[in-house]
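Protein 1 of 2
SEQ + STRUCT:
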Amino acid sequence: MKQKRKLALSTTQIILLSFLVTILLGSVLLALPISSATGEAVPYVDALFTATTSTCVTGLVTLPTVTSWSTFGQVVILILIQVGGLGIITIVSGLMLLLNRKMGIGDRLLIQDAFNLNTMAGLAKFVRNVLFGTLIIECIGALLYMLVFVPEFGAKGIWISVFNSVSAFCNAGIDIVAENSLCNYATNLLLNTVTSALVILGGLGYIVWWDVLRVVKSRSAKNKKIFRHLTLHSKIAVTVTAGLVLVGGILIFVFEYSNPLTIGEMSLFDKIQVSFFQSVTTRTAGFATIPQENLTNASAAVSIILMLIGGSPVGTAGGMKTVTIAALVCSAVATIRNKNNGSLFGRRISENSVKKAVAVAVTFITICTTSAVLLMATSDASVVDAVYETVSATATVGLTRNLTATLSTFGKLIIIATMYFGRVGPISLAVAFGSKNESQNVISEPTEEISIG
């Protein structure tokens, strides 16, 4: 009697499918007439595009969110953003904990892979902290946004504030304020500060949150040397994030200083805050306070680099991640200095971490390059606009040089696929669809040196 072969999916494949199912379900809901502001169903490709950009917390839109979708449609989009930012596995696990259901080994493996964690210890507490921490920060963000939007929009400003807070924390970049994103509020200090804070907190990652809180609560915080007692991961994430925001803001300030189409006509203080907001929003946030198509080529290049790097692991941001870049740079420096391993803050970076960083970078750049070439082959987009669009999609940023709305159906499908692959993570794709592990091979291939460089 033949045994039936049981279809077994890996945890990573389940995560990929969970995002895909969420996108398809969201697209069906958004394709309904009730989701449209006019009462007439939007084309399915636009509903699919919107569901993908929401679930993948990207922010690129083919239809203006504020004018194209009804309140029902906007609620669907907001739910997709929240689910996409946290991950469907986290949401389901949170519901299990709420219902006092114990998490099995399979559930723990799913959570571990969803957050790319190195251990399964304390996962229930981790999920609980993530959900409560997210809720608290988003509520505070919404209350602060109300100081700006309620005086202007009245009671509707409450809904706008909640929507923007969730979108900012999840690094989605989708708003329901105006068709030109936040350009009307480019010099509003409160809005810039609140949005930047939400974006950075979401992008730093949950691991950094708990690590900072651990140090603050410990006795070691009494000597006020908090940074010294952080883990290597947190030190890298905080340092690289601060450095990129600072350097990016300075470069954009210099390159755009005399550009009348962006910040050229603003006061010195406004030039500074708009430049730094651009540096922050390119870290996968996607809100725009200046038209991206009006940036100089130098600023566009800086923005592309910042988008490629993105935020930090185990957070809501996309990109190759700060820790990945740090590992690659340290490994390169160590090789140049003829050392076996790179190190940071007195700690050696493991060879396994460097290998993962290389895999992420190669896969990420491959997705960006392939998408850009296909987009240029099927549209009249310039090299700068196409690269900007595809990097933005892969890194789940959401900034565009006014190209998204002009995409053909095939162009939209290219960006949909790019956003999906960028969100689920290059390393997840490699693990999910890769071949057998090398350790399973009985006979290993012989080693031979090759010439590099």
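Protein 2 of 2
SEQ + STRUCT:
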Amino acid sequence: MSAQRYWWVGAWVCLLLLAGCGQADDGWARVQETAVLRVGIDPTYPPFASTDGRDVWGLEVDLARALAAELGAEAQFTYFGFDGLYDALLTQQVDVLISALVVDVSRTRDFAYSTPYYNAGEVLLYAAGLELQGWRDLHDQSVAVELGSPAHMEANRWQRRLRGLMVLTYDTADAAVAAVVNGRTPAALVDATSAHLFLRQHPQTNLQQLPDPMTVRPYALVVRKEDGRLLRQLNHALARLQTSSQLAQIMAKWLR
């Protein structure tokens, strides 16, 4: 399955989840009236969001500001721990969550998700010179993963289907990728963010990446389920950012 098709599968799932959204306009009416989009964010997850206590920066901070501008508003950030994000939204302390949140079907009774803006799923990095078209070419090879990670679980599934595949575990995703660089294994399966950041920090590294992600873990905006009109406006704004390449520029700034 191509990367584009993966993306649209995730987007289609999100759109299905939106089908039951209510029609209440309170959230969008408040944004229009105040020209402020109140954003809930956990600023402890670089490069998506970081803070020094006074200012906040990161990929999702830039995304929130760009979305707010598309809506004719200004982004106002309120910081929460990850566990407090959904409660803050439910109690109307904020209008939207933009905080590396994966679409969670179990929460769709109270919340609704936008179309995805980022796929945080696993990607396969491999040594230059290795002829690799997909994960099925790893028979009689080894692959490095972070112990206990989603990549580890995915590689275990591969191992049950591929002859002679060895799964090598490391303490971190960076250590798994470094094992490829150091010649201890021909490939590493890690989450997309770890892969992007490793390649950004080691630009001379002679690694290749399969173009298609191995799994899909879509990050999306979250609103209260009754804020259907606000969600539609946010989805339209996301689409405009994609069409104008501004979303791609934000991604490149923080991940490339």
